[in-house]
Amino acid sequence: MSKKTLNHSNLEALGAEQLAALLMEVSTGSADIKRRLRLELSHRLGAAELAHDVRKRLASIRKSTSFVGWRKRKALIKDLSTQVAMIVEKIAPDDPTLAVDLLWQFTEIAPSVYGRVDDSKGDVGDVFRAAIMQLEHIAPRAQLEPEALADRVWGALQDNAHGEWDGIISLLGPSLGTIGLARLTAHIETYAAPPRKGGSQDHEAIKFLRELRGGSRYAAERKARMVKSWLQEIATAAGDTTAYILQYSDAELKRKDIAAEVAFLLLEQSRAEEALTLLSNAQQDQRAVGQEAWDAAYIACLDALGRTQDAQTHRWACFLATLNQTHLRDHLKGLADFDDVEAEDRAKKHVLQFADVASALSFCLGWPDLLTAAQLIEARANEFDGQDEALLTSAAEVLRTRQPLAAVILLRSMIDFALGQGRSSRYDRAADHLADCAILDAEITDYRSFPTHARYLELLRAKFDRKSTFWAKVR
């Protein structure tokens, strides 16, 4: 390797004196580089000194009120990331307790930062989320008083307008321990308790107007959701499945998605019979919401109870209804040799007749089975929706080498849709599809019942001759 290459070894060979001079030179006019160099110098004096500088910088960021435009956005993200790196990489190894305190202070500045920057991309929020996740690794090594930590967590939960404290209970669960979690639970239960009569100073007219607007009801529902979420997070941190489940009402437990979630929790505790009963009591309506999770939990319960054949029957039924590949694969794995081959053949016949042709094509591509995909396309060519460019384009690309006729049929579907619906925004792509059809024509020896490329072009000209914008794009 050349000795002029910019790497660690070559720069180290320059020597400390020359590197110091270069750093002074490149830092001139660069606040970011100067700030980083000062932080590195502070670290040499100890974790406490570096922490002092980090606190000063966080306080400065918090006090700032100027809006951060797109030109300064990257600089802000880099500045925030640098502070986190100093805390996690430099301070935490020597003083984890101090690092926890600094990460807390860092997260507290999130609202002031969000208030002066457009975070539609989410990259600023990513810095804060990554920072708080570090507590999971640093807090267990810190000396934290459980009850004081619980009070601090409770304060954060009440001031979580931007979601910067989401997951804090789970992250600090081991540090809170039994004592801390109990104190935090007490805080939440006090907060959740209904107000005592006569406790509100609002005039009766004000209360009436608030209720009339629905504000009181919305606030109560929001409060109930937060309390449930907090208590479930505490239950998870404590490993108390029963307490977690008790936060759901009987009506909620009848929802398929919630029933499935709880059933898996019960399965982890070897309570398969109870889980199966819960799933059986769930509402079995026609809505798809939660159905996939419910089916997975139901099958898991049957397997746990040794009802293998019942599980196999349900897997097959799920596949027939949805073409779910996972259920089919698991079903085939449970069959003896040769039986699985016959079952797969039956499955493919079902796919060819499935009501939703787009789902059938997606199954063929994912399995993968390009021969069945080609049979499906040729047999049901008129059923494909040329508007579904994402599916048809990707399918045509996959099929063009081994099944060129099937690829052409899908390309024609998109061409016909664009011209038939007058979608001028798609004319460029339609022209490209037509060019692909011309290329694939050389690979097709038998068009069967479909028009040859030359004939298709004649029909297209006759039907859409006035689409001059399209024809101008055709090569």
What does it look like?
- This protein has 475 residues and is mostly helical.
- Among the domains are: 25-143; 355-475, no CATH class.
- It is 72% helix and 0% strand.
- The chain has helices at residues 8-12, 16-27, 31-44, 47-63, 70-91, 96-108, 110-114, 123-133, 135-138, 146-158, 168-192, 204-212, 215-238, 241-246, 250-253, 256-268, 272-280, 291-304, 308-322, 325-333, 339-353, 357-366, 370-379, 389-399, 404-420, 427-441, 453-464, 468-473.
- 24% of the residues are buried.
The number of E-state strands comes to 0
Count up the helices.
28
Mean pLDDT: 91
Which oligomeric form is depicted? Answer: single chain
The separation of the N and C termini measures 49 Å
Overall 3D geometry? Answer: extended
- How can the largest sheet be summarized? none
Fraction of residues in H or I helices: over 70%
Strand content: under 5%
Radius of gyration: 32 Å
Order of helices and strands: HHHHHHHHHHHHHHHHHHHHHHHHHHHH
Low-pLDDT parts are none
* Derived structural class: mainly alpha
